[in-house]
Design a protein that fits this description.
Blueprint lengths: L1 H19 L13 H10 E11 L9 E10 L6 E4 L7 E6 L2 E2 L3 E2 L3 E4 L7 E10 L11 E3 L21 E10 L3 E4 L3 E7 L2 E6 L12 E4 L2 E7 L2 E7 L4 H26 L8 E6 L6 E2 L4 E5 H4 L7 H17 L6 E3 L5 H15 L9 H17 L23 H18 L1 H14 L3 E3 L1 H11 L4 H8 L7 E5 L5 E5 L11 E8 L4 E8 L4 E4 L6 E4 L8 E2 L3 H9 L7 H4 L1 H16 L6 H14 L3 H18 L2 H21 L3 H14 L3 H11 L12 H13 L5 H11 L3 H14 L3 H10 L9 H11 L5 H4 L3 H6 L1 H7 L4 H10 L5 H13 L5 H10 L1 H10 L1
Parallel strand pairs: 1-10, 16-17, 17-19, 20-21, 22-28
Antiparallel strand pairs: 1-2, 2-8, 3-7, 4-5, 4-8, 6-7, 9-14, 10-13, 11-14, 12-13, 15-16, 18-19, 22-23, 23-26, 24-25, 24-27
GO molecular function: alanyl aminopeptidase activity; metalloaminopeptidase activity; peptide binding; zinc ion binding
EC number: 3.4.11.2
Keywords: Aminopeptidase, Hydrolase, Metal-binding, Metalloprotease, Protease, Zinc
Amino acid sequence: MKIRYLLISLISISLMNFSCKNNKNDVVEKGVSFALNEYRKKTLDSIQYSIELTIPEKKAEKIQGLQTVSFNLNALDSALILDFSNDANHVLSVKSGDRVVDYEFINEHIVINPDQLVKGENRISIAFIAGDLSLNRNEEYLYTLFVPDRASTCFPLFDQPNLKASYQLTLKTPKNWEAVSNGTLKEKAASGDTSIYHFEKTKPISSYLFAFAAGKFFKASKTIGSREMTMYYRETDSTKVNRNSDEVFSLHAKAVSWLEDYTAIKYPFGKFDFVLLPSFQYGGMEHPGSIFYNESALFLDENPPVNKQLARASVIAHESAHMWFGDLVTMDWFNDVWLKEVFANFMAAKIVHPSFPEINHKLRFILAHYPGAYEVDRSAGTNPILQQLGNLKNAGTLYGGIIYQKAPIVMRQLEKKIGGEMMRESLREYLKTYSFGNARWDDLIGIIDKRSPLDIADWSNVWVKTPGMPEYELIGEKEEIEIRQKKDSVSDRIWQQPAVIFWKEKFAQGSLKLNLSNQLQSVREPDFPAMIFPNSDGEAYGYFKMDSVSEDHFFLHYSTRKDTTFENPVFRGSMLVNIWEGFLRGDGAKSDRYLAYLLDVLQRENNALISDYLLGNIQTIWWTFLTDQQRKQNQENTEKILWGLLENTTDKGMKNSYFRAFRNVTMTESGLRKLEVLWNDQLKVKDLILSEDDKISLAYELALKGHVDAKGVLAKQLSNTKNPDRKAKMEFVIPAISQDEKERDQFFESLKKEENREHEAWVLEALSYLHHPLRAKSALKYLRPSLDILQEVQLTGDIFFPQRWLHNTFSGHSEKEAADIANGFLREKTDYPYYLKNKILQSTDMLDRAVKLKN
């Protein structure tokens, strides 16, 4: 209570200071501080924006804007501050009502003194030049991406999530362009070479959810039930579009119908459109009435692996769930951004089940969430699910594996703890109470605590508000085997959770369920030395150390049909995840032996989800944990196994997975020859259908791995590529693959300029080749400069870009020289922002482990 009282006092003092000194540079800081957020929340309401933008056909020309913002102001004790993250000369005029007013432009804010305003209803009109940072402009189209605080880079507004507003948009575009936004199209008119789109006023939404796209798009509409949906897209391959369109519409309709039933609230935002964008930065973005997607995530190639099909269904369900969780009810401050993401992921897992009755969804949940969550939580840069945030400009750094992978695991634990029915009723109350408003995690916990006799707040404090993962140790051998939580880094912290443990002896086997704690609990008093398989159902979260005898037994009996436990794919998947954790911590087999284990069981595995997981780990071991000599010793055998699986599998989806793994690791002359004849269509493998993207990747691999005519291969593929968006991406990436080191150096230097990082997906693909393990030594010189500009990358890039910039920079490196550069940077930068320091530690964790395991 003392801490809470102190926090309230500090906020009150901060707000008093803000009110007294609002025109000072040291108070009106860049971004939206928590104090500014709280003050505006207290003094502003009934906000409406009317925005008009004139979009020229040429990308280089500026977009002119005119907007009116009306609002109710209930206090005149402070200046009005509108956020506009641009240069002062982008503001052309400011009026209050019909009167031109004086204003100051301070740290990317338009500051209007109280004497220019009235208590009650105000109307401010601003003529401006729109900023380009969040407009994602291309030669033939553009689209906005305003999350988390990027709306203010385009136009002036109150850019914080708890000031919901209605938006009325008018777009003036080149005549042959389509346009789409959150609101229903009210009218389309023509004026010379210009089309004018007038959109209806939206329901109240947060600023990061306002969106529009305009350009040369195809579109298709479909009505399912009583709901009409329109899809906008750029893909020029009509066969691919026709193959996917019905399923894309169907998955949306099923998701929305399921959510209406679960929440007891009809879809809240009227019209339902979605836009498919090439190289979109995310899988999707949940703008109400106008969801944006990465086009390749929805338009799948022929014979897609089951994981690709599941991923498509999941991203559609995820974005659809956001219409309720995130859009209808939005977090109050971005430190609770995880709340909207966890419910979207949590609901998506439920929604996709009926569409894939043949899939083991429990296994799919384990493999989709646990490895990604552990990847962050095992690192020194881990963070709690609920993080602190002092300024909205840093909100993008909150995103990552903890929000998207760990949080759904924790939410599933909560549902099991309180029961599915109580969870559903609590969420219905939560949505009804805060509809078209804002809420915090603690608001939901309060609703649940009223219904449940359990202390949910205490459980939440450990799982949601502290970082890291528990570790469990098995103690004893012959007389008694016991388990307990290892001493935690946080004093007296106990991770409340049950776990199932399977044990096996020579003539007996069984399992038991324990509520884990830091006290020793008996697992088994064996008649013979027992093998123990902890967390055998995969539901508990943490690291369960296994002994070498149990691990060897698992691999030896992997595919036995005499043992129903080993026949269970959930058991196999859970143990593989657990053993991988042990390997990374140095508790398992050595790298080359572990590779042999995985290649062996890959040939015996018949579950596509597990096979894809195995292929991922095999490729990670191959490039990150094997020495050059070990790769040479295993090269022919590994290629033989992967090619054999590619040729012989009857699973058309897995054929593509085996092909991509083979393409990734092959280095022998015969293997590269296979890639070449596949690329130039001299070789056909039954049921292996290569898309234009596959052909591009084959050309890249041939050039990277020393094809004698690398330039010719790339030039021919560029000529053969029909889709204009893929062609433009190729032209960008090719210099990063060049066999000329000076050309690669020049390409890296170009990335130091913000305008050359505009297409983030292009940059990330180029980085993966620039830092490929085969080029790692020559790429060492790029590491320190990449770290030096990280803060700029964070401020100018979208939310996932800083982490992906780091990942694609360091993932190809596994030697001590690279680790020394990263660690030296962190030692030198003692006052470096902690949120970026954590991203570096997360991205270099695998590198540090590789250095230790190789030595």
